[in-house]
Design brief:
Pfam family, one: Elong-fact-P_C
Pathway: Protein biosynthesis; polypeptide chain elongation
InterPro entries: Elong-fact-P_C, NA-bd_OB-fold, Rib_uL2_dom2, Transl_elong_fac_P/YeiP, Transl_elong_KOW-like, Transl_elong_P/YeiP_cen, Transl_elong_P/YeiP_CS, Transl_elongation_fac_P
Number of strands: 16
Subcellular location: Cytoplasm
Oligomer: single chain
Strand order of the largest sheet: 1-6-2-3-4-5
Main location: cytoplasm
Largest sheet: 6 strands, antiparallel
Order of helices and strands: EEEEEEEEEHEEEEEEE
Radius of gyration: 21 Å
Strand content: over 45%
Length: 188
């Protein structure tokens, strides 16, 4: 148990029938009249849904101890993703639903953080940006600016993103794992 006065970003709360909610933002408010309260933005750990919730200041809330572990993606077994714990070398199987959009950027050997609660994987967190090789993209035509200066490119993971026209097949680029945006070339 913790008090609403102790909330921090990233803290996981157990609310409403055992659902897990991660604190995205919080703000202590002391109005001129009436009691103080805490305004929060919470994200459901499993569904990803975000809600705004207000708590009275000093109210007790149940916290969930979520264990975040550094793991390495080993391989894909059928539909499941196999990760290896970087400390114990134990392997765990994680469903595609739990991996979510992170699957678009996963290559064998990539490091990730896996959040566990009571022995069950909740979600997979990748670094903000990863470096991947362009598997295939059409050659850019000089003067072709009708599409706003971008073209589709297939990454080595099989995921397709938009890249600038000057990018060629075989180049290594940096990709934002949160938005799927091209961030720039990687100079080898």
């Amino acid at each position: 148990m913790a008090s609403t006065n102790d909330l921090k970003n990233g803290m996981v709360l157990k609310l409403e029938g055992g659902q897990l909610w991660s604190v995205v933002e919080f703000q202590h408010v002391k109005p001129g009249k009436g009691p103080a309260f805490v305004r929060t933005k919470l994200k459901n750990v499993l569904s990803g849904k975000t809600v705004d919730k207000t708590f009275n200041a000093g109210v007790k809330v149940e916290t969930a101890s979520v264990d975040k572990r550094g793991m390495q993606f080993s391989y894909k077994d059928g539909n499941d993703f196999v990760f290896m714990d970087s400390e114990t070398f134990d392997q765990i199987y994680i469903t595609p639903e739990t991996v979510g959009d992170a699957a678009n950027y996963l290559l064998e050997g990539f490091d990730a953080v896996v959040a566990m609660y009571e022995g069950n994987p909740l979600y997979v967190e990748l670094p903000a940006a990863v470096e991947l090789v362009i598997e295939y993209t059409e050659p850019g035509v000089q003067g072709d600016r009708s599409t706003g200066g971008s073209k589709p490119a297939k990454l080595e993971t099989g995921y397709e993103i938009a890249v600038p026209l000057f990018i060629t097949t075989g180049e290594k680029i940096k990709v934002d794992t949160r938005s799927g945006e091209y961030l720039g070339r990687v100079n080898s």
